[in-house]
Amino acid sequence: MRNESRGSDNAPQSRPGRATTFVRSVVTMLDDAAHIAPEHHLVRYSGRGTFSPGIIARAEGSSVFTEDGRELLDFTSGQMSAILGHAHPAIVATVREQVGRLDHLYSGMLSRPVLDLARRLTGTLPEPLQKVMFLTTGAEANEAALRMAKLVTGRHEVVSFARSWHGMTQAAANATYSAGRAGYGPAAPGNFALPVPDRFRPGIVDADGNLDWRRQLDLGFNLIDAQSVGSLAACLIEPVLSSGGVIELPPGYLAALRDKCHERGMLLILDEAQTGLCRTGDWYAFEHDGVVPDILTLSKTLGAGLPLAAVLTSAEIEQEAHDRGFLFFTTHVNDPLPAAVGNTVLDVLTHNRLDLRARTLGERLRGGLDELATRHPVIGDVRGRGLLVGLELTEEREQCVGDTDKLGAAVTRRCAELGLHMNIVQLPGMGGTFRIAPPLTTTDAEIDRGLAILDTALSDVTSRYPTPARSALPVSAPVRS
Predict the structure, then answer these.
(1) Nearest-CA neighbor of 320 among 474, 150, 104?
(2) What b/e readout covers 402-411, taking b as 16+ CB neighbours within 10 angstroms?
(3) Mean pLDDT throughout 266-274?
(4) Over 60: is that where the pLDDT of 170 sits?
């Protein structure tokens, strides 16, 4: 027999088996995946912004934790929603118990959690807000409120603030002016913007240089009246503008706005997505002004981070809407699982008196920020109420237009590196304003730790962006009355 040499150049080359080929393919895929950004398959939805760095693995209390073990103190309460902190034991217990009993129903059916929440939530409100429907998001609630207002009044025109944010669905987006209007085609006809009564950056001032909000409001409605086709239906605003820069309405403004609305047969709709349920130190921000809206919308805080929203109104308006065939039949209207969570949120808020806690913590936070402002000239203003606080950065070097935006972004990044998650609002001409809204369950020590991190971040960043001392002059030249 002929003995073939294994080392012969003429010997056939062996082919890799299927198993070997599969292993090599898996290795190649893993290697490729290692070079692909984690968000590679996700649609980006933050305008020109991107996702926050890191991947969050879990959250507890006032902190979130990344997959690589870093802790971030959460001073935005998730998306301004988790007022009881993350993974609150009572919320966890409610979800576990309720999901095993009754989670979702046909939208026309009723359940005990929904009936209980309707009774209890209206019990926290003044007359005549005694009718409620439960939905999922703030945009959906505002959509339903505007739809109801248009049906009841028989009109279609809507007024909202020029720095408003009410959601990204159609009617809510049409009433939103702070972002997201360009590039999507024509907005619905009949939407008007009202000037924001910003006391730090006043557009119209009196003889003493202070905001003349009455004249500004009069001029705003003069312009609206000139543009209206006689079909003004509603005014939708936040009692404290959040995305608009944490702007508190001046004393008396909300009552004057209500009067302007009622003189024209309009309904006043207050969007308390972020201010409702003790965030500002009162159960509802409108209580501070003694003005009860015709329609109230709640969301974010009502579910303490879970998708629960509400539209509340009077029996008279609800009856008129029903008589006219009000239709807002959605997949998750009056669902029992989120309603059960809402009941637990009310339990915790009431038992722990978190309205008073928000005031106390807010004073501690404001005091700390005011102290920082004495040492960091870049802090132009500290404002807000309870645990919804705005800190606005300013930059007055005229030759460096846009520096404030860069400064705000840099401070945000540095805070994250040091273990504090902060949110910066950036609007054209406004620079950057931090929206500071920690959970109502935050401890004194966590407030102090957040302030210390912000102090360090400001020092680190401003050392690379030296700024002169603040001028006593206003940032932009206002109109004098």
Answers:
(1) 150
(2) ebbbebbebb
(3) 98
(4) yes
- Taking the alpha carbons of 312, 314, 319, 325 in that order, is the dihedral positive or negative? negative
Query: What's the rounded Cα separation, in Å, for the pair 295 and 142?
Result: 10
- Alpha-carbon distance of 431 to 379, in angstroms, equals 11
Give the whole-angstrom CA distance, residue 421 versus residue 67. 16
Residue 26: is its pLDDT beyond 90?
no
**pLDDT, position 1:** 46
- Residue 403 has a pLDDT of 76
Q: Which residues contact 55 (CB under 8 A, 6 or more apart)?
A: 38, 66, 67
∠ Cα 440 445 450 (to 5°): 80
Active-site positions? 165, 238, 271, 274, 300, 435
Cβ–Cβ under 8 Å, residues 323 and 304: no
Rounded distance, CA 320 to CA 114, Å?
23
pLDDT reported for residue 7: 46
Among candidate residues 217, 229, 92, 97, the one with its CA nearest the CA of residue 158: 229
